[in-house]
Amino acid sequence: MNRLLTFWGGQASHHAHQVDTLFLGLAALAVLLSAPVFILIPWFAVKYRRGKPADRTHAANRSVWLEVSWAAIPFLATLAFYVWSTRLYIDLYQPPAEALAINAVGKQWMWKFQHPGGQAEINELHVPAGRPVVVTLASQDVIHSLFVPALRLKQDVVPGRYTRLWFTADTPGSYALVCAQFCGADHAVMGGRLVVQTPADYARWLEGMGTDGSLAAQGAVLFRTRGCSGCHGAASTVHAPPLEGLYGRPVPLADGSVVTADDQYLRDSILLPQAQVAAGYPAIMPTFQNVLGEEDVLKLVAYIKSLANAPPPTKDHDDGGSP
């Protein structure tokens, strides 16, 4: 199969192999369904051309089973491909719980990646082979699209929302990654490499990268330096909704609705605090839009997520603002 599809590049994952098999199978089915038509048209055109002595009377006997079969068999075959492709599509949105979480920010005209340990890289993404990886994508400016041909995966990166892409790269090597959405004058140079390493090599790469602490630890520093602890900290005098144990929990809102405190909710609460105000708290939190970049917001989100299993403060929270 690789020889037939060399113009696509190598296959770096089992998913890529499945996509290629699906494509070739669907192409073969299309040929099998259409070839008889294109073959019989010239044959009948020659056999029944004007002046040609040929029997043009209709057959006396008709086979109902034959007529049903040439409708039912293609239908069942295409239905099988529909089920197959649907399973592959659904799998794209069900990353394993133990997947390695990496953040990515697309901006004109580069990709910036953040690892959980705080390691950061530009236009290169190092991952361990054989381990599921889920990438949370954010855009700093315009619409981008992260495309890794060797994985047969592409995910749009939209301003104002998080999107996710997950994969398990099985074959160590270096593979191209590009932006597949026109994003401005230097769109053509917005690319990089996906570097798949053995687990041992990946561990050594992490150790060799300089870092100022884990992503959550860097978020904790931002939490203090940006004044967030002045309202959300346990020792603050003006209390906002507690952040300990918040992530993943349902949050009642002032308008009567209930949302889940996921990554998108945390991001919106930082940049658009008046959009979803927690029930029982006045809307006094200032916006950090145009103050924090997407990279800093992701660090703050990582810090709040690290508090998911922390016990909530015992003191009452009588005043405050949006989470």
In words, what does this structure look like?
- By secondary structure, the protein is of the alpha+beta class.
- It folds into three domains: 14-45 and 64-93, no CATH class; 100-209, Cupredoxins -  blue copper proteins (Immunoglobulin-like, Sandwich), CATH 2.60.40.420; 215-307, Orthogonal Bundle (Cytochrome Bc1 Complex, Chain D, domain 2), CATH 1.10.760.
- It is 34% helix and 20% strand.
- It is built from seven helices and twelve strands.
- A hairpin with a 2-residue loop joins strand 1 (100-107) and strand 2 (110-114).
- The longest helix is centred in the first third of the chain and has 34 residues, at 14-47.
- The model is unreliable at 1-6 and 316-321 (pLDDT under 50).
- Keywords: Copper, Electron transport, Heme, Iron, Membrane, Metal-binding, Respiratory chain, Translocase, Transmembrane, Transmembrane helix, Transport.
- Residues 97-208 form the Cytochrome oxidase subunit II copper A binding domain.
- GO terms for molecular function: copper ion binding; cytochrome-c oxidase activity; heme binding; oxidoreductase activity.
- InterPro entries: CcO_II, CcO_II-like_C, Copper_CuA, Cupredoxin, Cyt_c-like_dom, Cyt_c-like_dom_sf, Cyt_c_oxidase_su2, Cyt_c_oxidase_su2_TM_sf.
